[in-house]
Design a protein that fits this description.
Blueprint (H helix, E strand, L loop, with lengths): L1 H19 L7 E3 L3 E4 L4 E8 L10 E6 L5 E3 L3 E6 L2 E8 L8 E7 L14 E7 L15 E3 L3 E4 L4 E8 L10 E6 L5 E3 L3 E6 L5 E8 L8 E7 L22 E7 L7
Parallel strand pairs: 2-9, 11-18
Antiparallel strand pairs: 1-3, 3-7, 4-5, 4-8, 6-7, 8-9, 10-12, 12-16, 13-14, 13-17, 15-16, 17-18
């Protein structure tokens, strides 16, 4: 019995020691943000360094990130040299706006996303003259949209306005849209009348919205957007339960209607 207890305790101690050890970390990837111009030749280097032992050059990868945080192989050529410290030369011809994006250099496998900050090995490639990148958590590209939540009652007439304002470019009134949102983040055209007009500068647009005979079916989330519909939020929460609606998002509340209808 004593020997079994000792062996059991020794096994338990071994499990505790193994469990207490942190998972092995991979090599250190060092890379910096890059800036270039359209039509230029791209060339830069990054390093991959192991704490001990030699590295396998075939396990060094460079991937391009999308706004949805999906990755695809970068179109650039990688030339890898070294053993325990690898130097990677990245080259590409005829850079275009499509090359402007976030990238990640990694060894063997793409690392899981960190709780805070960008992942190790990530960097930005900016191309002069291209539309500014929209980064996760950053302000959305395009004009500023100002609209307020609305409250009305059944059978009433609804009338309100919203605004879009651009800092530098003139706005196209035909690219201003208002849609109705559903629980699954799908959108549909609104039944309301929307009249859009621009000021003398063309940088500020006002939308006037009117509707008669409001019903419970009109109670919903809505979205004002410019040019292209923005991607749906990553949260699976319903529109009305989001702590903060997307830019241009607002809610029409109809008195006497059930919120379960949303």
């Amino acid at each position: 019995w004593y020997q079994r207890r000792v062996r059991g305790f020794a096994l338990f101690s071994l499990v505790v020691v193994v469990a207490a050890q942190p998972p092995p970390s991979g090599p250190t990837v060092t890379v910096s943000d890059q800036a270039t111009s359209q039509g230029a030749v791209l060339s830069f280097t990054f390093t991959v360094e192991a704490k001990q032992g030699a590295l396998d050059a075939s396990k060094v990868h460079l991937a391009k990130a999308s706004k949805e945080h999906k990755f695809t192989d970068a179109r650039f050529t990688l030339d890898v040299s070294g053993e325990s410290k690898l130097t990677v030369t990245v080259s590409g011809d005829d850079v275009t706006c499509d090359d402007q994006s976030g990238y990640i250099a990694y060894y063997d496998r793409i690392p899981p996303p960190p709780k805070q900050g960008p992942p190790a090995g990530s960097f930005m490639l900016k191309v002069a003259g291209c539309e500014p990148l929209r980064l996760a958590g950053g302000p959305p590209a395009g004009p500023k949209i100002t609209v307020k939540n609305q409250e009305t009652s059944q059978g009433a007439s609804l009338s309100f306005s919203f605004e879009l304002e651009s800092r530098k470019d003139k706005l196209d009134t035909t690219k201003v849209h208002l849609v109705k949102a559903s629980q699954d983040h799908k959108t549909s055209d609104v039944r309301f009348t929307v009249k859009v007009s621009a000021d003398k500068t063309g940088k500020k647009v006002t939308g006037e919205v009117t509707a008669d005979n409001i019903t419970c079916d009109d109670q919903s989330g809505y979205l004002v957007y410019y040019d292209k519909l923005p991607p749906p939020p990553s949260s699976h929460m319903r529109f009305r339960r989001q702590p903060k609606p997307p830019p241009g998002g607002f809610f029409i509340n109809v008195k006497g209607c059930s919120h379960n209808q949303i």
